[in-house]
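hiii, so i know i said id send this last week but things got crazy w the move. better late than never?? heres the sequnce for the chain we talked about at the cafe, plus the structure i predicted for it. fair warning i was half asleep when i ran it
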Amino acid sequence: MRLPNLLGSRNGRLSAFFFLYMTEGIPLGFAATAVATQLRRMGVGPAEIGAFVAAFYLPWAFKWAFGPLVDVFRSQRFGHRRAWILGTQLVMAATLGVLVFVKLPEQLALFTIILLVHNSFAAMQDVAIDALACNTLHEDERGLANGLMFAGAAVGQAVGGSGVLFLMAYIGFQSSFVFVAVSILAVTGFVVLPMKEALAQASDAVSHTGKGLRDALGEMRRFAMDSFRSFIGTRGAYAGVFFALLPCGAMSLSLALQSNLSVELGLDDDQVAWMNLATSVLSGVAMVVGGMLSDRIGRRLVLSVSVVLMSLPVLYLAFVLQQQGYVMPRAADSKQAVEPALVSALWVSVLAFNVFMGLMYGVRSALFMDVTNPKVAATQFTAYMALMNLSIAYTATWQGQAIESFGYPVTLLIDAVAGLSCLLLMHLMKKPASEAAQISDSLADRRARQSAWGLGLLCLAWLPFWALRAELGAAAAIASMFFTVFFVMGALFLLAGREALGQALSPGLQRLALGLVLPLLAMYGRRWVDGLQAGVAPWLQPSPGLMLADALIYLVPLLAGLVLVQLARRDWAVLSQPAAGAMPSQAPALG
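okay and structure toks below
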């Protein structure tokens, strides 16, 4: 029997993206629930688990790098985005199969590396799926489609989290990976293989037959430049950058904090699995409901109400923990009695939270689709999604550190308040009134200068912070994590700004901007260099290696800050000019 092409009908498209997103949720549920739970039982602390979950999200935070590849390189035989989805799913299944032979906890480092490779291809798959959605879904389908997509991700998280925890009692931890791999391959065989992707317009088709690497890189640079113009060019797209970087509602009860607290309160693997399954089902249903409501009564109204409601269960749990005197984390094997009221409060707050979080997820990404330029859909929309994953990564990091420094109630309180900050920007995310303004408007150059000034000053602010870090106590680690986010953004801006300004910059400044990109990204590695966290001056470091490392930690942000300030003083009028080759997008025909 020949399987149908799901992209050929409305219901088929909705079903296809549900199952495709399910394959994205499987590895995330596996790491955040199954692996995090087992690590806590092994005695690993909340800060280390938070760092593990953050590291697991890093491939998703940098998936923007795959955007130009997906936009430029395409296959006429297998389809533009379909070819990418097929290839990445096969690699995802293969890496899960390899994990069967890795022993924990002895080979935890190798386990993490393989899992990061797996998630890198999962992130690459997500780029292709999002681009396919932007170019396939009709505007009146986007709200419901986004709800179903994230509902599919919730089901996938249940498979990777609850499914693995349930199966562990029968087949063991490693052997359960085969079940997860088979789940991914089932979607490959029944959804992706029969899929017929929309045909590209002849004028847009790109074939690299006979072209060299230089020509391919030129195509990628053009796409990346158009994407940068799209971010800076309109107020809605620019606001979307900051909206994506801020936490969209409270996050604590969907990250490692929930797994940590579940283990400490005495829940066994089956109970954690049932909690994860219940929350996945509730959030999945809520995602569909949220998407449907957003199409009928408006996305901003549904999103605003959902974000506010997400903070209420978090505040409730913080209050109960404080009332019961459960403040600081306890050992996983602690014999200290736990009040039943705490377990009940955890269940109530987690279930309620996931309902409201589901409503939010069903709406949020539809806003980004509204301000995304279809010409560079894979690059721009993917970058928005990557920034949201970066916000998850830094949130997981600071929460793990805050739990060990300030305790659970304070961490939950900060999370509940910080989650409301995104509402200040949501009303600015509006689609341009005309197609001509889709790329950039007359204020694009001012936004670029303001961004360069802000990032430059933040890089320079690192210098007094790093010199005085010993005086800041527990807050130093959290502040250091936020500076890492600023360094990543600064590196990306230097790379894009160098291309945008071109000959307006001197050759020396161009080389310096390019040369600072990798060192800025490498600043994240300071956390693994022993001896750098004590606040000792560079010239007093006990070894020449530490002295050099500490000196570079001052020098790189200093140079980056100065270069960014120089970029802020340049004329960015080129961003307000029509993009080369820009043209209104046309709806593709199904082939």
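btw The radius of gyration is 24 Å. thought thatd interest u
miss u guys!!
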